[in-house]
Amino acid sequence: MLKTIDLVKQYGSHTALQSLNLTVEQGEVFCLLGANGAGKSTTINLFLNFIAPTSGQVFVNDLDVTKHSQETKQFLGYIPEQVMLYKDLTGLENLDYFASLSCRRRPPREELKELLSRVHLAEDAWNRRVGTYSKGMRQKVAIAISLSKNAKAFLLDEPTSGLDPKASNEFSALVNQLKENQMAILMATHDLFRAKESGTRLGIMKHGQLVETLHADSVGHADLEQLYLRHMHD
Amino acid sequence: MRLLRQEWRLLRANRAYWITLLLLGLLTALAFQIGWSRAQRTAERDQRYRAEQAELHLLVKEAVHDQSEKEVRRTMMKDPPVDLEQLFNRPLNGIEKGRFRVLWNFAKGRFSIPHLPWRTWKSPSSLEALSVGESDHWPSFYAIGKEWMGRTFSPPSLSNPFQAMIGALDLSTLLTVLLPLFVIVVLHDFVSGDREQGTLRLILSQNVSFRKLMLTRLLVRVSGIILTVLLVVVAGLILTGTDLSDEHTLRLLGVFSLSLVAYTLFWSSVAWLVNSLGLTSVTNAVLMTMCWVVLVIVLPLGVSRVVAGRHPVIPLNTLAAKEIEIRALIRKAREQQQANTPQNEERQERRRRTEEEWVNSFIQDHWIPQRQAITAEITQVFQNYQSRSDALDACGIWSPAFAIKNTCDLLSGNSLSQSIEFSRKTGEFHAEFLAHFEQLPHRQSTITVEDFQKMPVFQPAPADRTISWEKLRTNVMTLAIWSAIPFLIGWIGFRPRLL
Description:
The complex is a heterodimer. By secondary structure, chain A is α/β, with parallel strands linked by helices. Chain A is 36% helix and 27% strand. In chain A, strands 6-7-8-3-9-10 form a 6-stranded mixed β-sheet, with helices on both faces. In chain A, a hairpin with a 2-residue loop joins strand 9 (201-206) and strand 10 (209-215). In chain A, helix 3 (91-102) runs parallel beside helix 5 (135-148) and helix 4 crosses helix 5 (135-148). The longest helix of chain A has 16 residues, at 165-180. Chain A is globular, with a radius of gyration of 18 Å. Chain B has a two-stranded antiparallel ribbon with strand order 1-2. The interface between A and B is medium-sized, with 33 and 23 residues.
C-alpha cells in the first residue's frame, strides 16, 4: 500500500533522507523510530507530496505520488503531531467541512455522527467548538476525517507526543482498530512503548537511513530500548 | 458548488468577518446619505429657481403686454405695478421682494432683459449620489444674460479639481480609498492564516485542488464585500426614489457594479499574490498596505501634481485681477477720451448725438472689447482645464484608483470632463444668446413680448446623458487588466509553504 524506492531528499548540502526503501502492507503498522532530524517526518511529508523528492520514488496504492498527487491523497489519512482544526467550528462542523473537501458528495449528518462514534469522541463534545477540545479529541476528529474518505493508509506523525497516558492508551486502541480494518499505517514516533504495543514492524532511522527493521513480536520492551539506544550512540 | 457551500459554512462562523462587513455597510450607507442629500439640495435649488423664474416670466410678460411704453418708463426703478404677493398667491419675504424688484427692473431696463432661465444649472445625474467631490471644486451653474456676459465662472467654486481625489466622504472616495482597506482586513491571511493556525497541513492532505479551494475561499470572502456595497447602494437608490426601471439608469448601475467588482477583484488578486509568497499574515498585511499607500495615495497625488505642473491653470484670483485690470484700462481710456474732447465740443457732440447712439458707441468701443478680452482669458482657462482632464485620462492606467474614481465621477455626472463639457455648451449658448441680443434695436427703451419670446433658451442635457461610454469602457478594461496581472503571477507561482 505504501512503498518507497531508493528515496532521497536533500536540502542543499544536507541529506535528510538517504536511499530509503520501505514497504507497508495493508493491516500492518510500521513504526518509524529515531531521534529528531532522523528523517521520519520527511518520509511522511514525501508520501503526502508536501515536499518533492530529490530522487527515488514514492508510491501509494501503486500510484506514483509525484505524478498523481491528488489521486493518492484519496487513499491517505494524515494525523499530524498537532492536529489543528477550525476553532470557531464544532467537532461535527469540522468533520463536515473536511469530509466534504475529499468526498464527491456531502456526507449525511447521520454518517458523520456515526464516524465520531467510531473514533469514540464523547457525544456531548460533537456540538462544542473545537477551541475547547484537548489534543486527543482533535486527533479523534482527524481520524474521523480520514475515515470519511475511506482512507486505506494512515500516516501518523508523532501522534502520542503530549498525550496523557489515558489518551495515549485510547489512541493505541484506535490504531489497533484501524489495523484490524486492514489499514496500512506508517507511524513516526519517539514512544518506544506505544510502538511496541501497536506496531507490526519497527524501523529505526538514523541520519536519514533506515538502519534496522524488526518485527514487533520478536523483541521485548527492554531489548527494544537497548537496541534503540545502541543505534543512537553509534 | 460543493466547495462554495463549504467555504460559505466556514465563513458563517467567522465573527470578525461579519463585523467588518457591518462596518463597511454602515460606512457605505453614510457616504451614500451624504452624497444623496447634497445632490438633493442641488436638485431642489435648481427646481426652486426654475419655478421662480417661470412665475416671474409670466409676471413680466403680462406687465409688458399691458403697459404702454410711457408707463414702463414711469415705473422704471420703482416698485412693480402689480401686487407680487397676489400674483404669486403666497406671502413673499423681504429678500424675495427685493430680488423680484431687481428682476423687474432688469426686465424694463435698457441693457438687460430677464431670461428663462437666466442661470443655467447642471441637471443632476440619476446616480448623482455616487460622487460629490468635484462639484465642490467646479461650478455647477452658469449665469446667462447681458449683465453676465463676462462672468462665466462662479468665483467661489473655481479651484483645483484634483483635490477632489481625496475629498469629502462620498461614495467614490469610500470605494477608492477605504474599500481596499476592508479587502486587506478580510483577505490578507486567507492562506497564511491557515498555515499559522495549523489547518493548512490537514487541508493539503485532502484530495482537493488547493488552488481551486483557495480561489473559492477568496471569491466567497470577497463577494461578501461586493454584495454589501451593492446592496446598500441599490437600497439607497430605491429608498431615495431613483427610477430603476429606466433602462439608461440600469445600464449605469450595471457599469458601476462591474467597476466595483473589478476594483475589488484587483485588491483580491493582490491578496492572492502576497499569500502566494508564503509570508506571514503580518507581512502580507504590511505588503498590501504598502500597495495601498502607493496606488491610492502616492501615485494619484504624484500624477495630479505632475499634470497640474504641466498644464497650469490660471488661479481664480489671477483671473479676477485680470478682469479688474481690463476694466481699469477701459475706464482710463474713457476718461482720457473725455479729457481729450474739448468741453464745448463735447456739449455740442452730446447735443448732436442721441442718448441711444452714445450707448451704442460705448458698447462698440468699450464693452465688447472688454468682453472679448475676458472671454479670451476664460477660453484659455478652459483649454488648460481640458488639457488637464485629457492628461488625467491618459494617466488613468497608472493606478486602478484613478479608474474607479473616474468611473464614479462619470456616472454621477461630476467628472471634470463633463463639467468642462457643460461649461463649453453654456459658453456656446451664451455666445448665441448675446449675438441674438446684439441684433435687438437699442433705441427701444424696452423689449417687446415678441422679442422676448424669440430669445434662445438653454436646455442642458441631464448629466448622465453626457457620459462618455468610451471612457467608461477604458476604465473597466484598465481595472480588469490591473486585476489580471497580480492574479496570474500568483496563480503561476502559487505553491503553499507549509513550515
